[in-house]
Specification:
The protein is of the alpha/beta class. Helix content is 35%, strand content 19%. The protein has a six-stranded mixed beta sheet, sandwiched between helices. Strands 3-2-1-4-5 form a five-stranded antiparallel beta sheet. About 4% of the residues have low confidence.
Length: 365
């Protein structure tokens, strides 16, 4: 009995191409465009891997006034198969996008990576943990639509197993519902767990300079592809080893996007991401007396009661408030109604503060 001929996988399958992308690209294929995944972007030019090889293309088709439509590493795009120079002609709608706010006074977002399945937040154990920064990264990761994962790098620098377990538990309190994996590129501990995660889909490495992202990428790749520089002993920070976002195929399956170290991680319309990071506060809020409780001074506030009882760390509530205020301010830059609400709230709180001071003066008189 003759066996059916095997169907060869699509040349882009190892880069994440699937039936869903093929269906979305069909109209552009009918126009003669060639599909490709963006593996690198630099100064208006990008590299795309296609079924026929790597293509160097211009990104000028993008409307420059819309930063959210800028070609980004991880994008699936359509490029003209011929022509000199070649141009990216279209971007397929993104399944997920990791976006942060820019330093601009305008409310603009900067896309760091597109079509990502796993957002890996690299945190160095060579320096004191900054739980607030971890929460900030996780808010953006949840908002992107990707599954977050915290990787504690340089675990070999922790003196003993008990100390490492304590640090892991500390991070787990700041990352409910998120796996926390300690790894060491020196000893190899934890790399098998991480490799199993990244083998399915597209992963992006995020973190500050000196967090060990490039070392981690090299360990997963099995070779020294990314340049590595030593971090300063005084604060554990390093220079930007990676200067562009690069998409790399992993030998065990999956692809990895390595990003430059991020000094600033501003939120960009990430309210649902913040709520996800602080899910225990959202759960407690359902027990508050008032449905619009701000968890500040309101009577019957279940969140404040949890802080008083020690169930909820006060640091978590302060971090939640900080990120929600920041996110509200970013959104208000483009929402006149919200700006007006914020001003009214400020005036109300100011009046309450003045009234409280007058009452105190009256008691002292």
């Amino acid at each position: 009995m003759s066996s059916l001929p095997s169907v060869a996988p699509h040349p882009l399958a190892r880069y994440g191409w699937d039936d869903g992308w093929a269906e979305r690209f069909a109209p552009y294929a009918a126009q003669g465009l060639l599909p490709g995944r963006v593996v690198r972007v630099d100064r208006g030019r990008c590299d795309l891997v296609t079924a026929t090889g790597t293509v160097h293309a211009d990104t000028e088709f993008v409307v420059p006034r819309d930063p959210m439509q800028v070609v980004c590493t991880g994008d699936w795009a359509g490029v003209d198969p011929h022509g000199d120079p070649r141009y990216v002609r279209t971007l397929l709608p993104r399944r997920t996008a990791f976006v942060r706010s820019t330093s601009s006074k305008r409310s603009e977002g900067q896309i760091l990576a597109a079509n990502v399945d796993h957002a890996i937040v690299a945190v160095s154990l060579a320096v004191e943990l900054d739980l607030g920064r971890i929460e900030r990264f996780l808010a953006l990761a949840w908002e992107s639509g990707a599954q977050p994962l915290v990787v504690l790098t340089k675990a070999d620098l922790v003196a003993d197993a008990a100390g490492l377990s304590y640090l892991v538990r500390d991070v787990e309190t700041a990352a409910p519902g998120v796996p926390v994996v300690p790894v060491s590129a020196v000893t190899g501990d934890g790399l098998d767990v991480l490799a199993a995660v990244v083998s399915g889909g597209t992963s992006v490495l995020l973190g500050q300079s000196g967090a060990g992202k490039s070392t981690l990428a090299n360990a997963l790749l099995g070779e020294d592809v990314m340049e590595v520089q030593a971090a300063r002993d005084v604060d554990g920070k390093g220079r930007h080893t990676t200067t562009t976002r690069n998409l790399l195929v992993l030998p065990g399956g999956g692809v990895l996007i390595d990003t430059p170290g991020l000094r600033g991680v501003g939120l960009f319309d990430a309210e649902s991401g913040v709520e996800q990071v602080f899910s225990e506060i959202a759960d407690l809020a359902g027990e508050c007396r008032f449905h619009d409780c701000a968890h500040e001074r309101e009577p019957g506030c279940a969140v404040l009661a949890a802080v008083d009882s020690g169930e909820l760390p006060e640091r978590r509530l302060e971090s939640y408030r900080k990120l929600m205020r920041e996110n509200q301010w970013i959104v208000a830059k483009t929402d006149a109604r919200l700006r007006a609400e914020i001003r009214r709230d400020w005036k109300r709180k100011g009046a309450e503060g003045r009234a409280a001071m007058e009452a105190k003066r009256g008691r002292w008189a």
